[in-house]
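Exam revision sheet. Question 4 asks you to relate a sequence to its structure. Input first:
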Amino acid sequence: MSHNPLIDYTGLPAFSQILPEHVQPAVEELVAAGRAKIEAVLAKGDFSWNGLVVALDEEDERLAKAFGPAGHLNAVAQNPQLRDAYNACLPLLSEYSTEVGQNEKLYAAYQALRDSAEYDTLNEAQKKDLNNTLRDFRLSGVSLPADKKAEYMDVAKRLSELTSTFSDNVLDATQSWRKHVTSEAVLAGLPDVALAGAADRAKAEDLDGWLLTLDFPCYYAVMCHAQQQELREELYRAHVTRASETGPDEGKFDNSGIMDEIIALRQKEAELLGFANYAEASLETKMARNTDEVINFLMDLALKAKPQAEKEIAELRAFASEQGVTDLQPWDLTFWSERLREARFSISEEELRPWFPAERVISGMFSIVERVFGVQIRQRDGVDSWHKDVRFYDVIDNTGDVMASFYLDMYARTGKRGGAWMDDCLARVRRINGSLQKPVAYLTCNFAPPAGGKPGLLTHDEVVTLFHEFGHGLHHMLTEQEVPGVSGINGVAWDAVELPSQFMENWCWTEEGVAMLSAHYENGEPLPKDKLEKLLAAKNFQSAMGMLRQLEFSIFDMRIHAGLNDKTIAAVLDEVRNQVAVMKPPTFNRFQNSFSHIFAGGYAAGYYSYKWAEVLSADAWSKFEEEGVFNPETGRAFREKILAMGGSREPMELFIDFRGREPSIEPLLRHSGIAA
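Answer key, structure tokens:
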């Protein structure tokens, strides 16, 4: 094979040159190189910062730079060959990672640096990184006897395979379902954007009429707007039974057994490390101190939100009843909620779409970031990517230098995992030769693509999603840390990592922010004042119901990872719903089978982080409310004291440094329209 584009490339990944057959050979070569490097470092015996930490970090980064782009392509441009190549590497990487984490000689080398006189000369970020590394050795089972180490490695390997299979099953189940519609009457109520998208999908497959799928933009449009209840029920059933034994694919992609095995193996992993359960082990690296603190926090919020949520659902039932719907079903919920919102505020998400063309939203978001954080954002053409829709931007500091960059991939398509996320392509790192690698991020969304001759038009909810992911991106890109383990989002406690993302959403709910983000796609006219006022007035519509839904997921996640105690996963979910839900889903609902955040993402025993960090973000935003939402001094303080610091200090210290005190729950309740 000629030179492998995943190995030792300079600059950005050459996506157009990466083939499935490059992935496994690159990983195998770089894992072998990593093992050799560790042996060489240990043999040399130079356990200084540069001789040990930097030398091994640079070797680790070669592997990350090879597998990172392969993993990214597997998420945004998957095909069967790439999937197979990616999955073949997971056991290799898991084995290598566990082997490194359990290397007693290597652990002793890091401990020797910690105990040496050099430790006192290290800066705060270096000390934090070193202490995190020692902690992670302990959490990898470095002190276990040989037989337990082998057992731990087997568990870790199997878990990496299972979580990837879970994710693949959700993607396959989502993309295997489709409904071909030839009568427009069936689609009555669907907005033009959704109809145009469905028509384009049908045309792409040489079909007449319209093609409906379970991709979120299409699914949500049907649930929100389709007047035909039978159609809503059909899509609802298909969506909530994805990857389950009752799914429309006849159980072909069933995740039930996989979930059971994941939970059992996580429990085993925790017990091997001396923890009572996986939740306990998970919290070792988070702000929250123990499972009781998390459950009490969540239940306290539920207690405060539930009375209002019960009032909201009663209002919805009464409204639907007035329209002749006396037995409100789960597939009616979104539809009638949207009708009630329209009736109460004379505004709908679809009605606002024409004022939020993607181009205007993107440029407006950049303008807000430029004003608040003192940077500039410029598109760079000619950068190799994985799809024609992908764009590349540079972030420029006040000296005119590029300080960071990012890829932006906005639209849903076949072969692309659902949802929205930020991931790092390159971290900000100072190399041993003195050169500085600048951070590069991937920003990925799944909005409805341009269709029917119109540009991409976003709902306001999608605008909020874009800001959320860009907040994660800013955390990665505006870091000033140069140690990879604490640069950007690295080393940040998981329950604090959502602070910048949720914080950024607030500009979407200010009059000044919306003015910068909106302009009618046909004539450029601003969003009329009456529509703006209605949008802002509707901000907290059914906010308590929304909060309870998040709390339901969070409590369920924490409980299944704190020990099932002979209960099934479904039984625990039912118990949680009995406690907090104001409308229980039907018995056929298998939401848990596609809950990728906790079964395939990084949120296992950590989904509560969204609410935990929302307390921080709401309180941080209240400082902007007090001092001016575009106050450059406040923006500079947030950038310097939160974003720039990465994972170099404990998040509570950073928050207190910015806010002048510990966080209060009151701003979150106030911003959500819930009485304290």
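Marking note for examiners. The first helix runs from residue 20 to 44.
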